[in-house]
Amino acid sequence: MGRSQSLDEPLLASAPRGATIASCAINLASTCLGTGMLSLPAAFVLAGFGAGTALCIFTALLTVASLHLLVTCANRLGGVKSDFYTVCEAALPGSGRVVDVAVVVNCTGTAVSYLIVAADCFTATFGVPRFAVVLASLVVTAPPSLFRTMDTLKATSTIAVVCMLAIVALVVLMGFGPSPWLEPCPGKDEVPHGHCQGHVEPVTRDGLHVFCAIPFFVNAFTCQQNAFIAVGELARPTPARQTAVVVAAPVLALALYITVAVCGYLTFGDTTPSNIITAYPSSPPVVAARCVLGLVVLCNYPLQAFPTRASVASLLDSLGGAAAPADDGDGEGALFTRSARDVRIALAFVAATGAVALFVTELGAIVSLVGSTASALIGLVTPAVAHLLLARREAGGATPWASPLSGASLVLLAVGAAVLPSHLFCA
């Protein structure tokens, strides 16, 4: 394990630096802004309005804590290049492979869901054959997946965030807008605009339903797989600037999530579907929103390739493969990676996700299962265990239980341990 490092020194030596706080925060937020947001109104159906709002805020706080713990763990390793494998191996030798596999599974499943959503959106809108949409999506997303640094994606990430803001605006206007084009339940003149007669529950009386809503929020906020890459590219990565990134990204996501979940749930109540966009009748704004959603998921697809590249590379190294540096000095400033291994991994990622999306149209319970377990492991369990073990080692064998970070770790660990087996009893 590397030397300890003063909190006043530049930290997280890894990827080429130069990214701003805003760029890193937008990239990190864009990692989790996707199809998960559209399912949050359905999570409110399970939890009720009050409990759903509380769970969304609570999960955002957990995300801030987990991101901060990951950055803190990486800083403890000094000048070592930081990734999930390095941190986990330093905390508990032999655990890095498990977490790397979880990252690959989570990112692959998320990328496949992006391609499927894009196919659904553009096929329904333009009547283009599904396979043609998937192939076109791969052609568009493959080059950005080969970029040298994630900071290069700041433009597409910004577009994705802006598009998500447009979708949020549509959901809000559907609930409160006066235009006939913005009527969510046409033909129901007897009910107020924006409410389609579904029952709104302040707090559900079924505790199991509240618990089963938690994985929805955990999945929606999962961005930890890109934490090392995003913060590692930060210019002048002082503790204050790192903290700004790990706080800003979840807060930005929270603002959009609360708006969509509340407006969507208040509109349709307990009849809210798993994808809020599908609940609205076809109209010019809704058709435009579906196109925008397709654009969003394609913009976010390459963000899943970066952690996959890092995790597969570390798995290959741990299994005895020859270590291959991502870039040498000659690659400084290059747009695309010059690592042959990174290119092969990225192309394999594109091919694998495309193949699944071509033949699978409904991932259903399988994607939910993989997403819930992988997200809980990556976002909750790993940061908590890594911090507790590294803090214990740094303190000479005695875990500093009284520290705020250890308290946050225990909360993360408890929630993660509860969510991991939730698929066994949550339909």
What general outline do the C-alpha atoms trace? Answer: globular
Average pLDDT confidence is 83
Quick one: biggest sheet? none
> Which runs of at least 5 residues are low in confidence (pLDDT < 50)?
1-11
For the record, give the distance between the C-alpha atoms at the N and C termini, rounded to a whole number.
43 Å
Label the structural class.
mainly alpha
| Order of SSEs | HHHHHHHHHHHHHHH
Strand content: under 5%
Q: How many helix segments?
A: 15
Total count of strands: 0
What would you report as the Rg, rounded to the nearest angstrom?
21 Å
Percentage of residues assigned to helices: 55-70%
List keywords for this structure.
single chain; 427 residues; mainly alpha
Please characterize this protein's 3D structure.
With 427 residues, the chain is mainly alpha-helical. The protein contains 15 helices and no strands. Helix 3 runs antiparallel to helix 9. 52% of the residues are buried. The N terminus is likely disordered.
Q: In a few lines, what is going on in this structure?
A:
By secondary structure, the chain is an all-alpha fold. The chain has helices at 21-32, 35-38, 40-47, 49-76, 84-91, 96-126, 130-145, 154-176, 207-220, 227-232, 239-268, 284-318, 340-359, 364-394, 404-419.
